[in-house]
Design goal:
It contains ten helices and 26 strands. It has helices spanning about 15-20, 65-70, 90-105, 160-175, 190-195, 280-290, 305-315, 370-380, 415-420, 455-470; strands spanning about 5-10, 30-35, 40-45, 50-55, 55-60, 80-85, 110, 145, 150, 155-160, 175-180, 185-190, 200-205, 210-215, 220-225, 225-230, 260-270, 295, 305, 320-325, 335-345, 345-355, 380-390, 405-410, 435, 445-450.
Length: about 475
């Protein structure tokens, strides 16, 4: 299995420290670069990578090492340097461990995982070679077929790291699915879950009883025809495949923890004075009393929260879309993904946000109308759906069934209300009529959904409302 080794250091890895780490394979090891020098590689005699080292990240957000690694990092700001050992080469794993150990020793800090920390001595790699291209061409991809790219992640949380982001990009450009394989006990960052998309991309979990299964659907999987695919039951038919579901996936554990989940879209007029991220910060403050802790273009989130800096990055990348991850603090776990696109309508922000609550904590449901009104009146809200679901407080996704959320409210922005004929938006078949948000001359509407949060009846109300608003 591929091994990721990470050095968490108090000081910046300067060129001399990096060189000392790279010499862990001896003086005769070849050194190459990728990504315009952003990745340094220790290579075998044929020039194929044994270990790939990502450019160090300066992390200025507290709690990211704990959230993603379960590790204790130096006080912020600290440096996060990842080394990825090539699949199936034991010496490569030793090289990565020695590299991280040397950095931690020279710069003050620690290597993760603790059992990867090796000695400072040179690792003997005489005669070691790795797989030929193309599997070794992309350091984040472990197996490449005509149908999928497979990434093996042996980490507590499969996060949207720079490695994995590169793998998503490479697979998409090649027209392939991306399949992420992890051991039992691993969880998934919501940022990765939202990026996986549909078939044949999957999160594959190793399991003692069933071999492999899909961590999001529970379908038992086998490697067949160049990818992981569902196993068919003996009595399956073409119309009813009856894919077996892994026993581990069905072990439902209701701990009393909950998540308040919001999905909303804003469409801003294109303007040089536009500052993005304001709507997300507004909701965050209304529901927690504080702004987000940090953000970044990958995980770990490295930068303190700043809508202005976020806007600058999106502006530099335009007209290409931009994706961000935004995180909360230890007191209130939360994670959002933000996708910004330039369209004919303007600049669109699509936000998926979840706050985690323990069994003794109550989500601030009374604050939802105020948050919705602030979005509608100040941030060009198009629509928003609010759900409450049984899910982990730390907002990580486990490889077990969690069930769908229950819709609590739907919000329709002022422009969408205005575009509907007659009074359709104001008069609905629901027992409870919408609440007007903002000025009555140009209102947005907040639709409370009267379903019981303890069951799924809210979905019936939501579907009925959607049919009504669409005129069906």
């Amino acid at each position: 299995m591929t091994k990721d080794v990470i050095a968490l250091t108090a000081k910046m890895p300067d060129p001399w420290a990096v060189l000392a780490g790279l010499l862990s394979g001896g003086r005769d090891k070849l050194v190459g670069t990728r990504g315009e020098g952003a990745v340094i590689q220790l290579c075998d005699p044929e020039g194929r990578p044994l270990v790939s080292v990502e450019a160090p990240l300066l992390v200025s957000v507290e709690g990211e090492a704990e959230r993603l690694l379960g590790a204790t990092a130096p006080p912020v700001p600290y440096w996060w340097t990842e080394a990825r050992a090539t699949t199936g080469v034991a010496e490569a794993e030793q090289l990565a461990g020695t590299f991280a150990t040397r950095l931690a020793s020279l710069l003050g800090g620690s290597a993760w995982p603790p059992d990867a920390a090796g000695s400072l001595a040179v690792v003997k790699t005489d005669g070691v070679s790795v797989a030929p291209e193309p599997a070794a061409a992309q350091p984040a991809i472990d197996v490449l077929t005509e149908r999928v790219a497979v990434v093996i992640q042996d980490r507590p949380v499969v996060a949207m790291t720079a490695w994995l982001s590169d793998a998503f990009r490479a697979a998409a450009e090649a027209g392939l699915g991306l399949q992420v394989v992890s051991p039992a006990g691993t969880t998934l960052s919501p940022a990765v879950r939202d990026a996986l998309g549909g078939w044949p991309s999957r999160w594959i979990v190793q399991d003692e009883r069933d071999g492999y299964y899909d961590g999001l659907t529970g379908a038992v999987l086998r490697w067949q025809d160049g990818m992981f695919a569902p196993v068919a039951s003996p009595d399956a038919t073409e119309d009813d495949p009856r894919t077996p579901v892994a026993a581990t996936f069905q072990e439902v554990r209701d701990t009393g923890e909950r998540q308040l989940a919001l999905t909303f879209r804003m469409v801003h007029p294109a303007d040089d004075r536009l500052v993005l991220g304001g709507g997300l910060e507004t909701v965050w403050r209304e529901l927690t009393g504080a702004p987000p802790a940090g953000w970044g273009t990958s995980e770990p989130a490295t930068l303190p929260w700043s809508p202005r800096r976020l806007t600058d990055v999106a502006h530099e990348r335009a007209p290409e879309p931009t994706w961000f991850v935004v995180v909360g603090n230890r007191d209130r776990p939360a994670l959002a993904t933000v996708r910004i696109t330039r369209t004919e309508a303007g600049v669109e922000e699509h936000v998926t946000l979840a706050f985690g609550y323990g069994s003794s904590e109550q989500p601030p449901l009374d604050a939802l109308p105020a948050a919705a009104e602030a979005l509608a009146t100040r941030h060009h809200l198009q629509s928003m759906l609010v759900q409450l679901r049984k899910a982990r407080r730390d907002v990580a996704v486990p490889p077990r069934f969690e069930g769908p959320g229950v819709p609590l409210a739907f919000v329709l922005g002022a422009e969408e209300v205005r575009a509907m004929p007659g009074d359709r938006a104001r008069r609905t078949p629901l027992a409870e009529q919408p609440v007007t948000l903002g000025p009555r001359t140009r209102p947005a509407l907040y639709y409370p959904l009267p379903g019981d949060p303890s069951d799924l009846s809210g979905w019936q109300d939501f579907e009925q409302l959607m049919r009504h608003l669409k005129g069906a």
